[in-house]
Write a structure and sequence with these properties.
mainly alpha; about 290 residues; Farnesyl Diphosphate Synthase; two-stranded antiparallel ribbon; homodimer
Chain lengths: ~290, ~290
Amino acid sequence: MGFNVVNELNSAVEKVESALEAYYSSNKATEKLTDAMKYSLLGGGKRIRAFLTLSFAKMYGATEEAAIPFACAVEMIHAYSLIHDDLPCMDNDDMRRGKPSCHIKFGEATALLAGDSLLTQAFEVCALNDKVSALSSVNAVRILSSLAGYKGMCGGQEIDLSDKVESYEELVYLHSLKTSALIKAACLLGLYAAVDVPNSEDVEAISEYADCLGLAFQIQDDILDVTGTSEELGKPIGSDSKNDKKTVLAFMSLEDARVASVELTTRAISAIARCPDSTTPAELALWLLSRKK
Amino acid sequence: MGFNVVNELNSAVEKVESALEAYYSSNKATEKLTDAMKYSLLGGGKRIRAFLTLSFAKMYGATEEAAIPFACAVEMIHAYSLIHDDLPCMDNDDMRRGKPSCHIKFGEATALLAGDSLLTQAFEVCALNDKVSALSSVNAVRILSSLAGYKGMCGGQEIDLSDKVESYEELVYLHSLKTSALIKAACLLGLYAAVDVPNSEDVEAISEYADCLGLAFQIQDDILDVTGTSEELGKPIGSDSKNDKKTVLAFMSLEDARVASVELTTRAISAIARCPDSTTPAELALWLLSRKK
């Protein structure tokens, strides 16, 4: 069975890619920094998060022009988090997306600044979005910052560092911050690209979808980390367990993990059944369940 | 001669300090991260930037309530930049404001995340400012992000790393990004707390003030780095030259540097003569010229 969503995703990847590229103009003095930012941001990302923003925006009637800057902002946050995650003091990963990590290519200091700069630029891009109301821009900044910061993604990374995860429930909490929070921001930014003041049922339904999708995605990552090939993944096999990271497989068998990811995918799809034409994010969830990398 | 501005500054420090503290609620799982953020953000900063925001806001008629969140946001950006600057891959400084740097106290990984989180929170705080219009919030985010990012402060840090500064002019350009950009953001955020759509003459006058003040401030820092005492500075004497950083003293004598900082201070004060009652920022510039730490 083929997934229609793959064609949609590929088309979105192209649009997001060229929108991202268009943000950069050259400046000789800071060329190395922008080169490092572009190295990690462009070419190679799956753009799942950007695609979620565009998909929810479309479902709620936003134009693509209104949603693209928000989609780019989410990808900038994602790229920054990967650069900082790969640094020696964090996961110390030399490879990312099949090529040397940012700090291997540009040095640690420039990689640190490239991450900082992408994080900062994400909010600039939201604020410069002139195809939405000022209120929508502010809401996008509010959602993205609250879900990416210490109460969201950064908080999840801190828990991940702390080595205090002793149960599946604690691991779920970790991933709700580390992975799902940014996915939730991506989905909600699509909604806010379309609607100035959305109703709370829509926000809750989309949040539930994102929470379930993020956890299913992470479980799938943990499964692929031990069953995939290095070539498929673009990073060494078993690198998560090598780094003593707790994965779901510390708390359940591979088979139970597969069942859990199917159940979470089903819950994600059910959550958005009430939203207008949810075919695309539903298909995306199924496709992600079938991915090999 | 005493400076009235010192009393105003001290009163602002108290208000900003309690506003900053109020942003944090406790969460057991991410306690270490918020502790690291608060360790670097609270208690010890001179709050010059916050004071500039409050001063320009007052000059243009904003309420203090409207300006405080923007002032806090600027201090969050400043605190993040110091945390990341002190990291081993950057300046590798063990001391900051007379106490161990964030990474010495909390470890590199948590320090990295604390910086990321403060940067992110700065934009959240701007977006949550409900005492100004949505347009003012968006403008604050736009200004702060564009001046703190790769075209501003981060770009300046990259040039500083590159060791390519061969002339006084290049050093001035470096500091216009590394130091003045955030000071400019601080001043402009005060204006935007008061006015939805400011006139361009005000923006230019305030920008000129900030450029001159920032450079004068940096020259003063370079002078104090060789003439101050470790106790006054809260960091080892000569730590900038130790790190092979180019300072203005690489291009001019101590005496010429003192003359340059006086001239820049005069230019800063002249620039804002056209603004409504500019006594406070003018006095601040004079007071900064006289500082010993």
